[in-house]
UniProtKB/TrEMBL annotation, chain A:
Keywords: Repeat, TPR repeat. One of its GO terms (molecular function) is Hsp70 protein binding. PANTHER family: TETRATRICOPEPTIDE REPEAT PROTEIN 4, TRANSLOCATION PROTEIN SEC72. The keyword Transit peptide does not apply. Gene3D superfamilies: Tetratricopeptide repeat domain. TPR repeats lie at residues 150-183. It comes from Podospora fimiseda. One of its GO terms (biological process) is protein folding. This is Translocation protein sec72. It comes from the Eukaryota. GO terms for cellular component: cytosol; nucleus.
From TrEMBL, chain B:
This is Sec62/63 complex, subunit Sec66. PANTHER family: TRANSLOCATION PROTEIN SEC66. The keyword Isomerase does not apply. It comes from the Eukaryota. Signal peptide: none annotated. The chain crosses the membrane at residues 12-30.
Amino acid sequence: MSDQDSFDFIPLQIDPKTKSISSLSASTKLEAELSALNSLHRALHSLDAPHLVPPPPVPVNPKRSANVQKLRESGNTEYRKGKYAEAVKFYTLGLQMALQRPPWEPQGLVREEVHQLYSNRAQAHMQLGNWPEGAVDAEASVTAKSQGNAKAWFRRGKCLMEMGRYQEAKAAVAQALEFEGEEKELAELLKEIESKIVSQKASGDA
Amino acid sequence: MFDINWRGLLLPLAYLVVLVGTFMTFSTVYRKRKAFQSANLAPWFGPHLQRNIYLSLLHMEPEEGSEKAPKVPESVIRAALLRRALEDLNRIIQIRQAKAACSNLLQKGSVGDDLWQRFLRAEKEMEEELRDVVMEANALVPGWGQIIFQTANEIAANKALRERLEEIEGQTEHEKEWWEKKRATIRTEFMKELDEAESKSVASHDEPVLVDTNVSSSRPSTPGGAAKKGKK
């Protein structure tokens, strides 16, 4: 764009019914952009009546938060009853609900909701002995919120340890200690992992 | 009284005319050349696709056969403007990040003046672009100009977060497969160990054989057999 008053004209077409924009020239970049535009357009239609455009990020419509909260609590109840598979289902639903939040709502809120759900689901998976799923969920949880999330860090380390991936577990827990400071449980887990590494080495040499 | 000797002044005047004339020609030519050069510098960013789409939507041409240009609904225009704001934000961030590095390199002489000129121009263009987007937003919906970039910022951050989470969740299948395989090998090895231990104990009864009964199938930490699980 050499100057502000000119632009490159792109021949675009609009579907009269669906209002979706398309183009005849098939460049992948343009097509990707147009599909992003159309999906954003559809998303804008979900706005409540008085708003024509996304309102400022805060305050948020409390409906979705309440739903997510409810699903998480249902999951927690099932977990306490010992029905871990059911709990996993509820947490998954809650995650879907939280991740479908419209994109213009604050991402901090999404992180807050999602990290708890992932962390809880990791715990439920651990109770079921599904270590790989637990490890992945715990990783997702710490990605969403790396500070003040000691439980998820612990679960990640634990799952990796249970799978015999001691080096990865050690790296995860060491990173956790950086974020969380001296957390007692994490330090203990680190010790346990280190002793495992030592015994593995010893038996490997024997 | 004063008798001006015009003929005597002719020479200095001619000198002055030639001097000023040369100076002016030089300066115009120089300036033109410089402007031409800076106009021909490669732009910092590639074509602004979102901006082009937005403006193309505003200037839709009539389709063949019909006289009137197709009507583009306002909501599509708004979505297109939001996409444009998103891309602008992206570019602004790039500029901010590049600025310190660029000026540093210029001071050290590692990069030429050209690059710096290009950079400054891109910065100026972005400022104008942002102003333009705010104006357009206010024209579409009163008061939107103040929040359009906030919204765009959240959209960008949300997109990044979701992509990251999806990437992590995408590993699940792979991890599960890996774990199934690993568990299978562990189990077979464990069984082999048991068999060996049994045959050994059959062969020589007086040697005590250590079989750890507490070992779960997921954790092969029998003292003797761990040497064999080198492969993962």
